[in-house]
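FAQ: What does the model actually see?

It sees only this:
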Amino acid sequence: MNRYDIAIVGSGPGGLEAAITAKIRNKDIILFGNKDLSLKITKAAEIKNYLGFPDITGENLAKAYNEHLQKMDININYSRINAVYAMGDYFALQSAEEMFEAKSVIISTGVVTGKTVPGENENLGRGVSYCATCDAALYKGKEAIVVGYSSKEEEEVIFLAEKAKKVTYLALYKNVTFLADNIEVIEGSLPREIIKNEDSLTLVTNKGSYTADGVFFLRDAISPEKLVPGLLIEEGHITVDRSMRTNIEGIFACGDITGKPYQYMKAAGEGNVAALSAVSYLAGRA
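And it is asked to produce this:
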């Protein structure tokens, strides 16, 4: 398995700038993100305070970002990272499809707006999970509930259904495609609470309750304290110093995830600093 110098999680301005700076410093990098880069950017009607691009639209700024990535020969890996684990002298990054390894990590996932439901945190690892593909083998012959927030999650639901006896899929979006005979699709049922039973979980929604052996939440982004165990968080943001270092040696953070102001220029500047700090960290290990 290839062990990268720097793994960058997030394809907003902070993550992209971190990738570009690290690539210029001749580091072997892997960048995780979305093909649309960042919805916060692409949906912006007009951006007035981005240096060198007066009155640019979010769509055109994203186009400029993509052109820069292409010139630097930087590709985006679309795997969603579900967890980052410190393994001593390297970090393991877990996705639904495979594991990745890196000597250092930069977190730039933006602000996670989706709130957890009561009972979710308390039962994490005890029936609640964020990766259906990762834990599918545990549900052979069992029943599972999956909460999906976009059509991107359907492939993961289908994989889980190949192992499980039954999957109840709560789709929080419209126009779900046909999935499989053992998948019951329920649209518009909003999660309210998780109740732990003796050997099962009950998910209470605004339209009823559903009971199964486990519950999966397939959100687009995972809150930082769940993404990286042991990471210091204050008021929902990763705590960093001026070098973008976190409390975990070898992990850095940049962009909106580090706190206000939520500005593109601020995020890009922090991405540059985070990459330079990661480069210095790697040099100190040599």
